[in-house]
Amino acid sequence: MRTFVHGEAVWEVACPPGPSLVDGVTMAGFRVHDLGALRMVPHPAVTLILEFGAGSPVVDHGAGRRQRGSIAAGPGLGSAGAVWASGESVECVQVRLSPVIARAVLGVSPAELDGAVVSLTDLWGREASRIRERLGEASSWQDRFVLVDALIARRFAAGVPVDGEVAWAWRRIVGGRGVVRIDALAGQTGWSRKRLWSRFRSQVGLPPKRAAKLVRFDHAAHRLVAGEGAALVAADAGYADQSHLHRDVVEFTGATPATVAGEPFLAVDPLAWSAHVAEVLGSGRRPSPDAGAQDRTI
């Protein structure tokens, strides 16, 4: 395990030795001894937290709503800085699912999460309890990753895939780091704009324009964390100017770019997640031949 220190919190981070059995899945293991109030920064993936330790993570998602234990959160959760996590002696496996495979794995569309934090027990029933027990009994992080990967693969194989055109549109958005002509996507799939927007929203959990905005923000936020200046990030990430970047960062996090640059939720990413996360996020089942003919490079 590798160690990441932020304030009084000491994070121990474990990573799988290889890729998941399912394209579009990344995971990491965390042990946090004293997790104070941690801002959950929006991310263009569905997030699963499978906890098994002595302490239980607590996620506060506004208006006094709290969720303890293992959870699922839709893409973009945490907008405006509304979601915070805390806990002591927390141990968990965190899984990030590309939105185009999330419906099959969850058993419901990400749209049904409706921007909320949902208990995995509500989604998976006794299966959530069984995986928690098995994770606690496992003797190593490697064993835990194998258990979670097998569960994800089994649920994915039994689930309902998204439309190929929707998966293709998502990959175009991710491949362009959010800087794409959204109105052109429908024409390239052969669908009407109304049909693509409706299917994309219902299957991915966000409208295409919002999805592109989130992907662009995520790319910009990680560059800010890496120490790049806001002006350079704004120019390279496709923002009109630095003020435009500032507005988007505040909209998604409730904080300024300078504050976001020091957020531990983002700063721990280089330890926890693959350098090819953008490629993984864009993965999913292959689109239909007509849709995929436009671009098979993502």
User: Which percent range describes the beta-strand content?
Assistant: 15-25%
In total, the number of strands is 9
Radius of gyration: 18 Å
Uncertain parts: 275-280, 284-298
Which geometry do the CA atoms define? globular
Present the secondary structure layout.
Layout: E1 2-6, E2 9-14, E3 25-39, E4 46-51, E5 58-60, E6 66-68, E7 71-73, E8 84-97, H1 99-106, E9 117-119, H2 120-124, H3 126-137, H4 141-158, H5 164-175, H6 182-189, H7 193-204, H8 208-225, H9 230-236, H10 242-253, H11 257-260, H12 264-267, H13 269-272, H14 277-281, H15 289-292
Antiparallel strand pairs: 1-2, 2-3, 3-8, 4-7, 4-8, 5-6, 5-8, 7-9
Helix pairs in contact: 1-4, 5-6, 5-7, 5-8, 6-7, 8-10, 9-10
Protein name: AraC family transcriptional regulator
Pfam families: HTH_18
InterPro entries: AraC_XylS_family_regulators, HTH_AraC
Compact summary:
The chain is an alpha+beta fold. It contains 15 helices and nine strands. Helix 5 crosses helix 7, helix 6 crosses helix 7 and helix 8 crosses helix 10.
Structure overview:
The chain has two domains: 2-158, Sandwich (Jelly Rolls); 164-292, Arc Repressor Mutant, subunit A. Helices cover 45% and strands 19% of the residues. The protein has 15 helices and nine strands. It has helices at 99-106, 120-124, 126-137, 141-158, 164-175, 182-189, 193-204, 208-225, 230-236, 242-253, 257-260, 264-267, 269-272, 277-281, 289-292; strands at residues 2-6, 9-14, 25-39, 46-51, 58-60, 66-68, 71-73, 84-97, 117-119. Strands 1, 2, 3, 4, 5, 6, 7, 8 and 9 form a nine-stranded antiparallel β-sheet that branches. Strand 5 (58-60) and strand 6 form a beta hairpin. The longest helix is centred in the middle third of the chain and has 18 residues, at 141-158. The two termini are 31 Å apart. Keywords: DNA-binding, Transcription, Transcription regulation.
